[in-house]
Design goal:
Chain lengths: 319, 313
């Protein structure tokens, strides 16, 4: 048990409280709040993905469909239906949940590598829908979305108000996933990850557990996408493409698969790196991301947080 | 003019032919994926990038690669090499180059992952695909380059009931030949027997004195070379772009899920049939032609999750 992996221990709590305190004061220490808010959206996306791969052992290669799909629905609800932001987000999340239910139900009929290929193919199909559908603006996507007023009262056009709203949602998602993973339900998910036939023989309806995990993960991914619309004022095709699905895998892997802090660290690293590189490396960014991907898989499979944990355990063993 | 279901026969046959051409590419690519997966347990996401690489080798060959004045920083290097080759040479050079890339990838990277979950192989090759695609986008942009059909195959044959562009006929014949050649190699020769034995139990085959690591490297290179050959063959019928592989590989994955990766013949037949079905959809309901393969995949997963030719574990 160690501080990065578990939020229950005292040292762990201190680290998390420090991190939260840092996020609370970030806008006042000269960091651009929109950048952090954007990273938080991707962190939610990566947390959702980690729930599926890290704790259930299912590699979805189509999670961008839920992230980007919810973004489109939220943007449309805000722009064309003039809903308040919280209702638009709920609409986006529900759409992602529905898509997750359909894609998940089809994909869990195969395991392992086939599961990855099926989710990739179905998500690709969905990206055609978002390219062709009449309400998505084709190649241009939906732009110039107004954030509106939260509950009709608090204007989110103020960047600070928006930042704290996104931070609040992020903390809620984090605590929710922490709760899920530590619940009896989460234990069954881990049992499925470790040994599926055994979980079946113990009498668990594995398919139902997996499907629920998939829908949960898709909904949370959608929540990240919906928030991103508010942050950046747009929903684009880029968010539903397979490259985006790959990116969330990279975030989770780079940060540390199956750890709580991993996806958050990974999301901040990748988003930060992209921001940093887009000015300096321009279109080489994709190549650099690809190289990090390869390096991660070949030599750095535990990820940043995973390596820290392993280092801490090695140190603890020494007298 | 004769019509079937309100569609002129000529147009129908034309689309069928185009479907068969696409199906040939699906067949060659899914065949390579299946062979690699069989022995290495790796789903090669870079297969699309290798297909694209093959097409670019052909295109560069025709365009001429001039390495007599290479700008390296502020210096101009003279490597004294100048390539220029036509389509027929490209049919050899393309697979060779891509196969060599395959050797390097296997020796340098994939080799380290065999003891791990097969998902890592997928992730590694995904990263490779991003790199290759990114580099080509950097140098050649995302707009398509066209490749002239070789002179001997330009023009069309009048078969009486339809006009058949010679090159399309050639692609179908060539890919059928390659596919069945591969089938023969794997199912009917001693080398193929070793390969199949290695798929079942690598350590036992190694104990008999067979160099299994070499066999694995050559298998990966062979699968890659098949993708490269498909790329060369595709160059004259489609636009050569850095993105041509990534769009195709997802369709080919769906083909592989439908057919199941268990059988060679299964991959070939599934590829061809899906190409034709896609062609037919383009005639009768064009809006769905991009997604029909995925629909079929969903239906097959509902009815027969292991795939049409797959064996349930």
């Amino acid at each position: 048990m160690s501080w990065l992996g578990h939020g229950t221990q005292r040292a762990g709590k201190i680290v998390w409280i420090l991190a939260l305190a840092f996020l609370l004061v970030v806008p006042f220490v000269g960091v651009y709040p929109i950048f952090v808010a954007q990273a938080l959206c991707f962190a939610i996306f990566a947390i959702a993905f980690n729930l599926l791969l890290g704790y259930t052992g299912l590699l979805s290669f189509g999670h961008a469909a839920f992230f980007g799909g919810a973004a489109y629905v939220t943007a449309w609800l805000l722009q064309a239906q003039h809903l308040t932001p919280e209702l638009a987000i709920v609409g986006g999340v529900l759409a992602a949940a529905a898509a997750g239910l359909v894609i998940g139900a089809i994909a869990i009929r195969r395991q392992g590598i086939y599961f990855a290929m099926v989710t990739l193919a179905l998500a690709y199909m969905l990206s055609f829908f978002f390219l062709e559908a009449p309400f998505t603006g084709g190649e241009n996507g939906l732009q110039g979305i107004e954030r509106g007023k939260l509950f009709g009262l608090l204007s989110l056009e103020n960047d600070l108000a928006l930042y704290y709203f996104v931070l609040a949602v992020f903390v809620a998602v984090f605590l929710f996933v922490l709760r899920v993973v530590h619940s009896p339900y989460g234990q069954v998910l881990k049992a499925i990850r470790e040994n599926e036939p055994r979980a079946i023989s113990l009498g668990y309806n594995v398919d139902r557990y997996k499907l629920l995990a998939f829908v949960l993960s898709a909904s949370l991914a959608g929540l990240g996408g919906a928030l991103k619309v508010l942050v950046l004022h747009l929903a684009t095709l880029q968010d539903v493409r397979w490259e985006q699905s790959g990116e969330v895998i990279l975030m989770t892997l780079l940060g540390g698969l199956g750890t709580f802090a991993g996806p958050v660290v990974g999301a901040f690293t990748v988003v930060g790196l992209q921001n940093y590189l887009s000015d300096r490396a321009g279109s080489w960014t994709g190549v650099i991301i690809g190289c990090i991907f390869v390096l991660c898989v070949v030599a750095f499979r535990k990820g940043i947080v995973g390596e820290l944990l392993a280092w801490q355990q090695r140190r603890a063993k020494k007298p | 003019m004769t019509e079937i279901f309100g569609v002129p026969v000529q147009a129908l046959l034309g689309q069928l032919m185009l479907g068969l051409v696409n199906g040939s590419f699906y067949a060659m690519l899914s065949l390579g994926l299946a062979v690699i997966f069989g022995l290495l347990g790796v789903v090669n996401f870079a297969h699309g990038a290798m297909y694209m690489l093959g097409a670019y080798v052909a295109w560069l060959g025709l365009d001429g690669v001039d390495l007599t004045h290479v700008q390296a920083g502020s210096q101009v290097l003279n490597l004294g090499i100048r390539f220029h080759f036509d389509f027929w040479t490209a049919l050899l050079v393309g697979p060779l180059v891509v196969g060599l890339v395959g050797v390097v990838v296997e020796k340098l990277l994939l080799k380290r992952l065999y003891k791990l979950d097969p998902l890592y192989g997928l992730l590694l090759t995904f990263g490779l695909a991003l790199i290759v695609q990114g580099v080509f986008l950097q140098f050649y942009g995302s707009s398509g380059q066209s490749y002239d059909t070789p002179e001997a195959l330009s023009g069309a044959l009048n078969l009486g009931f339809m006009i058949l562009p010679k090159y399309r006929g050639f692609v179908i014949l060539a890919s059928l030949l390659v596919c069945f050649g591969t089938w023969f190699l794997i199912e009917r020769t001693r080398l193929g027997a070793l390969l199949r034995a290695g798929t079942e139990n690598p350590s036992l085959v190694q104990a008999f004195g067979v160099n299994v690591p070499l066999m694995v490297t050559l298998t990966y290179a062979g699968g890659a070379a098949l993708a490269g050959l498909a790329g060369v063959l595709a160059a004259p019928v489609i636009q050569v772009t850095p993105l041509m592989g990534s769009n195709l590989i997802i369709v080919v994955f769906a083909v592989v899920v439908i057919g199941g990766m268990g059988s060679i013949i299964g991959s070939i037949v599934t590829g061809l049939v899906l190409g034709v079905l896609e062609g037919l959809t383009r005639v009768f309901y064009p809006e769905a032609s991009n997604v029909v393969v995925f629909f079929i995949m969903a239906i097959v997963l509902m009815i027969r999750p292991a795939g049409l030719f797959g064996k349930e574990k």
